[in-house]
Design a protein that fits this description.
The protein is α/β, with parallel strands linked by helices. It has a single domain, classed as Pyruvate Kinase, Chain: A, domain 1 (3-Layer(aba) Sandwich), CATH 3.40.1380. 64% of the residues lie in helices and 13% in strands. Helix 1 packs antiparallel against helix 6 and helix 4 packs across helix 6. The longest helix is centred in the C-terminal third of the chain and has 78 residues. It is elongated.
Length: 297
């Protein structure tokens, strides 16, 4: 059995760790609130952009655009959005596992990986995957310059037939307790699918208007401008969702660590009390034995 001094040192060490995890929990909570606001503020833009793509797409019909070419997928670009730091539970491993499962299902496709986040870069580089480029996003706020640079690189690669498809892998933020690994085909551009709410809203708007839309400039010219913007927004949304999910996962992980430290401290305290009691009992027995020996003389 460990001595009371050793147990006391362990208790002190666990308390120090508990203080760190509690602080990290509070920081993650503050960052999560900001990330949730950023993701929420992007939703109105997403709704309007999707509505515009539907309305204009219906008016244009078939349109010739470099990012609309649907080719057999022989080469693909995979954009993996992860975090720069760890200590966020299964947040990063879940996304990495989703990417590896996708690669195993398509063994005949040549992959080029673009990593947004240090953890993704480290994971795929160590395992010998073809990491073409990596980005380290700021932890304070989403950088539009990074999104524009990545979108431009991917679009140019698709137009030059370096890639036949671009897939984005990220964790979709559902709630602070739930983050779902998600994959999305960004290029070639396809008409965005409507949710039931978006479909109902669009039908109501069309019923009120009761007339055809008037476009300035022409619908086809608008689509040429909107498709790149839509791709940029899909990347921005993936990063915003991932950032919120990262802070939520770290919040839960640090809360669990703090609670576990509390249980460990309680268990060690009981062991310390037992060791201290055993030491006191031993001293009393030694004193009594000494006194009895003196009386015997």
């Amino acid at each position: 059995m460990a001595s009371s001094r050793d147990i006391k040192k362990r208790i002190k060490g666990v308390k120090n760790i508990q203080q760190i995890t509690r602080t990290m929990e509070m920081v993650a909570a503050a960052k999560l609130r900001r990330a949730q606001i950023a993701a929420k503020n992007a939703k109105p833009y997403a709704d309007k952009l999707n509505a515009m793509m539907h309305n204009i797409g219906a008016s244009v019909g078939n349109i010739q655009h470099p990012l609309l070419k649907d080719r057999p997928v022989k080469k693909a670009a995979l954009v993996v959005v992860s975090s720069n730091k760890g200590l966020c539970g299964a947040f990063n491993p879940n996304v990495m596992r989703r990417v590896e499962e996708y690669i195993k299902k398509h063994p005949d496709v040549e992959y080029s990986i673009f990593c947004v986040g240090k953890k993704g870069k480290d994971f795929f580089s160590r395992r010998g995957y073809n990491v073409v480029k990596s980005f380290l996003p700021s932890e304070k706020e989403l950088e539009l310059s990074l999104v524009i640079e990545l979108a431009g690189h991917l679009s140019k690669g698709f137009e030059n037939e370096d890639y036949d498809q671009v897939q984005v892998f990220y964790s979709r933020f559902v709630s602070p307790m739930i983050q779902r690994p998600t994959s999305l085909t960004v290029i070639p551009f396809t008409k965005p699918e409507e949710t039931e709410e978006e479909e109902e809203e669009r039908e109501k708007s069309e019923a009120v208007a009761n007339s055809d839309y008037l476009f300035e400039p022409e619908p086809e010219e608008l689509m040429w401008e909107l498709i790149p913007k839509y791709i940029e927004f899909q990347l921005y949304n993936a990063m915003a969702q991932s950032q919120a999910g990262e802070h939520a996962s770290r919040l839960i992980a640090m809360k669990n660590a703090t609670d576990n430290a509390k249980d460990v401290i309680k268990s060690l305290t009981m062991s310390y009390n037992k060791a201290r009691q055993a030491a006191i009992t031993k001293e009393i027995l030694e004193i009594v034995s000494g006194a009895e020996a003196i009386k015997a003389e």
